[in-house]
Structure formats: structure tokens, C-alpha cells
Design a protein that fits this description.
alpha/beta, 9 helices, 43% helix, 237 residues, single chain, 2 domains, DNA polymerase, domain 1, Rossmann fold
């Protein structure tokens, strides 16, 4: 990536370090089964990620939570169509609504779980003496969440839009993180699953961006380093 020595590695939260608990591909499969739709849960993960990216892009265009409820529901319905289409299932609008309703009940009390590669990767990075942290658009306090998940001992900083008032891709949220790390942007890697709001935004703030592509969906993106597991970060630090 660069001859500059890396001193810090920072991470996006959702779809990078953590998923919901229970994992959404399992909850989606259960919701589909309850509606008479049979789909293997392992086939749902790539489509769920693409649906998330659709939501992020819509939210950048105009905050989804501030739109009329009818428009919000249309977006959520579109997300279900995207997720299931990637798994080979064509939904009706009524089926999409049914899945939305069932998923809302499952995740009324939001909990998270770490991906299996997170702690092994963090062990390797900490062995190299790197500063580790999180930059996330999440609107809740991640400190108790990270404590519960056993991630807190690894983290030197957690920066969220809730704390700063800025959301990615605004460079100010990245700059706030650099103030905490005491590193230059060129000495700092940022890892995320979305090319625009994670990788490109980090690069615009002077950092080195790395795209996490867990399901190998974005091979066409060649302008930045791309990894399929967080453990692969050891090759870039």
C-alpha cells in the first residue's frame, strides 16, 4: 500500500466487525420459512449486504428516517427484494412486507455479535503494537456493547456519529479519530465494507482505505486494497 509505517488501524462497525444477534441471515431464513418461503440461510448473507448498501446510498441522498413513512416502507421493501433476489427468490410485495414485520419483532431489542475473524485479527494487530479503534455512524453508545462482546480491551478509541455530530462520509468524523490516535492520516488504515462511505471517504480524509469484501462481491473494485477476511490485514501493516 505505502512505504509509510502504519501506526493505527480503524474499523467500521456494522458489517465489518459486527452483525446483529441473532445474525440476520438466520433471522431472515426463519421469517421466510414462517411465510412458506424456503431459502437456505447461507445464501442470504450476500444479498443482505447489498441491501444494506442500497440503504446507505438512499440515506446519503436524503436521510431515510426523515422521509414520509410510505417512502421508508418502500425502501425497506426494496431491501427485502434485493436480499432475496440474490438468494434466487422473487418476492411479492406482500411477502416483503411480511418479512419486514417479522424482522422488526426479532430485532426490537438490538443486540450484536462479532464476526468470527474479529478477535483473531485484533490479536495479530495488537501483537504489532498498533492503535486500534472504531469509527461508526451508529447512533448509540458502543462502549458497553464492546465491553459485553470482549472487544473493549483491544480498542484505544471509539468514535461515533452520536458523539461527534458528524456521519461518514463527512471527513470531520475521520479527523476526530485522528485527533484521538495522534497519528497522521497516511499512518492510519480504515477498514469498511462500503467503498464510498468507508474507503473513499477515509482516503479523502488522508487515510489509507481498505475494502472488506466478505462475500467476494466487489472484485471489479481495483482502486484500493480488498480483503475477504480481517485476518488478511496483517499483509498491509
Amino acid at each position: 500500500m505505502s512505504l509509510v509505517v502504519t501506526r493505527a488501524v480503524l474499523f467500521d462497525w456494522f458489517n465489518t466487525l459486527a452483525d446483529y444477534d441473532p445474525p440476520r441471515h438466520e433471522a431472515h431464513a426463519d421469517a421466510c420459512r414462517a411465510l412458506g418461503i424456503e431459502v437456505a440461510k447461507e445464501r442470504l448473507s450476500p444479498g443482505i449486504l447489498l441491501a444494506d448498501h442500497y440503504y446507505v446510498d438512499e440515506n446519503r441522498r436524503s436521510p431515510v428516517k426523515q422521509r414520509p413513512i410510505e417512502e421508508q416502507m418502500a425502501i425497506f421493501s426494496r431491501m427485502e427484494h434485493i436480499a432475496l433476489r440474490e438468494a434466487g427468490v422473487q418476492l411479492s410485495d406482500d411477502q416483503a412486507l411480511g418479512i419486514i414485520q417479522k424482522m422488526a419483532k426479532v430485532f426490537a431489542d438490538t443486540r450484536f455479535s462479532l464476526y468470527e475473524d474479529v478477535l483473531p485479527a485484533f490479536d495479530l494487530l495488537k501483537e504489532r503494537g498498533l492503535i486500534l479503534g472504531v469509527i461508526s455512524n451508529i447512533d448509540r453508545d458502543l462502549v458497553p456493547v464492546c465491553q459485553e462482546l470482549g472487544l473493549a480491551p483491544y480498542l484505544d478509541l471509539i468514535i461515533t456519529s452520536r458523539d461527534t455530530g458528524y456521519e461518514k462520509p463527512d471527513p470531520r468524523i475521520f479527523q476526530a479519530a485522528l485527533q484521538h490516535t495522534g497519528t497522521e492520516g497516511s499512518e492510519t488504515i480504515y477498514v469498511g465494507d462500503h467503498h464510498a462511505i468507508d474507503v473513499l471517504a477515509a482516503e479523502q480524509a488522508g487515510m489509507q482505505g481498505v475494502l472488506l469484501d466478505r462475500f467476494d462481491l466487489f472484485g471489479h473494485i481495483t482502486s484500493c486494497p480488498r480483503i475477504t477476511s480481517l485476518v488478511d490485514l496483517v499483509h498491509y501493516v
